[in-house]
Amino acid sequence: MYSSFQEGESVKKLWISILVVLVVFPMMFQSSVKAATPISIIIDGVRLSTDQAPVMVNGRTMVPLRAIFEAFNATIKWNQKAQTVTATKDNTTIMLKIGSKTATINNKAVTLDVPGLNLKGRTMVPTRFVSEALGHEVGWNPKTQVVTITTSASNVGNAGPVSNVAAQDVSDFGDGRDLQVSFTRAANESLVDHYRVLIVKSGNILNLSSAQTIASYNYSTVLPTGTNPSIKLTSASRTVDGDLIKSDQAYVAYVLTVGKGSNASALSSGSSTMTLVNKTVAAISNVQVNDISDYGDGRDLSVSFNKLSDESKISSYRIFVVKATNYSNFNLATANNVSSANYTLVGKTGNNISQILSSGARDVDGALVKTGVSYRVFVMAIDSSNAANHVLSSVSSAITLSNIGVSNLNVSDVNNYNDGRDLKVSFTHATDETYISQYRILVVPTSYYSSFSLAEANNVSSSYYTAVSTTGTTTNQVLTSSTRDVRGALIKNGVNYKVYILSIGSGSNTGGNVLSSPSSVITLLNDSSVSIVSNLSVSDVNDYGDGRDLRVSFTHPTDETYISQYRIMVVPTSYYSSFSLAEANNVSSSNYTSVSTSGSSTSQVLNSSTRDVLGASIKNGTSYRVYVLSIGSGIYWDSNVLSSASSVITLLNDSSVKAITNLSVSDVNDYGDGRDLKVSFSHATDETYINQYRIMVVPTSDYSSFSLSDANNVSSANYTSVSTSGSSTSQVLDSSARDVRGNLIKAGISYKVYVLSVGNGNYAGPNAISGESSAITLSTTKSPVISVTNVTYKEDNGRILISFVKSANESNISEYRVLVVPSKQGFGSADAIEVRSSYYTSVTPNGTNPSIFTATRDVNGDSIVKGVKYKVYVLAVANNSGVQNGGLSNSTEEFEI
Questions:
Q1: What are the transmembrane regions (predicted)?
Q2: What is the dihedral of CA 297, 302, 303, 304, to 10 degrees?
Q3: Which long-range contacts (CB under 8 A, 24 or more apart) does 76-82 make?
Q4: Per-residue pLDDT reduced to its tens digit, 498-516
Q5: pTM for the whole thing?
């Protein structure tokens, strides 16, 4: 159907497509997928089940590509990068590209009404195109919203129903695994595509029509093999109404024979009614695991659980140790396949069981149980007479065996040095240190605490932990002044920390390091009565361009008994991340500002000679943070305390709005209007208080009198606004651009250009005007368009038929615009150019005198109505070869419909 087309039909379809694009294109920005009545797709009498419902797009039914192709037994290849799908069946190969209206059938291009698209993560394709491309017949019932597809099959006939349908209870899982269905195959199985086993609650009625509409996830499929089938259902099997199969419910089994192609389907008689009975006892419960020794093998692991209350069908139990990283994939089927060497067998005892594993105990992967590995444990009850009745417990909590871990971890603040010497770490060593080489004290900021793990502990640099030997049974370690946290920052007051101990394995435990639980949170504080200031803030208060612009305010500590002074330190933000108490103590006296302890607060404007901590003068344009150092006195002369940083501040000179620079103009096109004029300039260096720029085109006859006052009063219609985005502007004006007098810009007139910088905020004025550009006179080598003539109208059943004689020269015309104007409305060439595209009718020049019906709206967008008088104009619009210097026809006579 899509492989060839006659030439005439192709041309006809091409024009139809063009007209459709003209009409539909403005609507493309709307949602193309409409809400509609649910659509059903029936293939050879069987409803197609999809996880994304079919939808209607521009009059075409779209369906998930995988569902439709698999329904036709076609093979599918998807190219994610190219966004193409290729489907092959028999001798036909189809390729579609998502978003494209062109597809191929056996490498021949065809045009689609609607392209493939992505919808909620599913790739949707047009149903009719796919079906007919594979040689199938498609029907559509708009009233019922049903698509019917009839496949072409070589065999036509009736395979007939199966017989002797029987259902049996074969297990005790309490779900579909207990149910086995058998039947005698159809008489002529060569006509059978497959069978569907349907489970119906007793008392419900099933007929052929309803059987054919059952969703695929509510039946079990059996393929014909030439023998009488017997199928055991699964734990996920459901009845035809979607309920999971379960015990203590009566069911009847049916089998639907589904014929190949057009072969008719047939429904069997129902089986005898049967009710599943679950004969198993309750599952194993309360599986617990404990680390009880320090052998470094299975002897450290104790497993306990509550035995089954009824062990009459149970011969023994099996304990499975599973690596915690793999436990989510461990199930009954996996457990049944574990080698006897990789589980621990426990006999029935009559009591709840507590089992210590052996030194040779292995996990289910065959590896010896050992320290440093996280495990989870399952227990399975064994029915020696029927493996189908084995029962697997829920999983235990995770456990990591350790014989190298520490205990009794404690931290305390013991000094007032404001560094690592204030922190004391105490802990009890592991009971057996045979395979431990050292301990590592790790100090972790609590902001990083939640994500700290063994893997991260193993990767901490040797510069960022404190090593402790295994000598003795306990450690009480005061850290050093140079101790750093695990991120590399020096330990200091005011930061919340937690401490961990990493036990480093050696010998047989090499690589099996163990990380302790964290200590309690500790924040080192200086108890010396030298306290930090509070409420630190900074502000830009002047415009000197030096330290006199910076005000620093803060609240003094309540108790200043042991404080001699405060030092204000201005730190460039490029230096902020590494600024510390130690560095503050070393700042030269010429690079900070001293403040006395007098009063309860300070609000200090710095002086013109103030320098930052690096010795550079404070200036505009540099980002700073400010700190205040409290200086200890008396017995606390060396216990200085550094405040937190202020917010970032960048001093600015706010006193003026600056003008632009590097203004230039050029003639870049030949439209004969503003599109010919390009204006370029560099933005002001500081645009903080500039809202926008305004490009003003001034006829040179006005040059001598144009001033800032004149620029401020120019109407918004007579300049071009430019945002402050970027560092420069290169702007070609538009066709409607006007000079400052309100006249359209055009060729043959000499202009000069100015740019006005417009202030914002507190600087809404004074604005700043640039110098003038060089004079420019726009010229054109293109010819003006010639208007059409003899515009006439004719009324036809409320429509307006317009005829006119084409322009004498159409080479420089892109289109004609037919404009309906209320006769009382003034209308000229400038008005015609500005009419919106949806309010006129466009006609493409083709060498003939057009005769067309107009649209139903006038140039204002109002509907054309009775009782209103109108005139019709035709505007010839210039293309790149012409100049829009006229082109508007005379009007028709006044008329009304």
A1: none
A2: 170
A3: 78/123
A4: 999 998 888 766 777 878 8
A5: 0.27
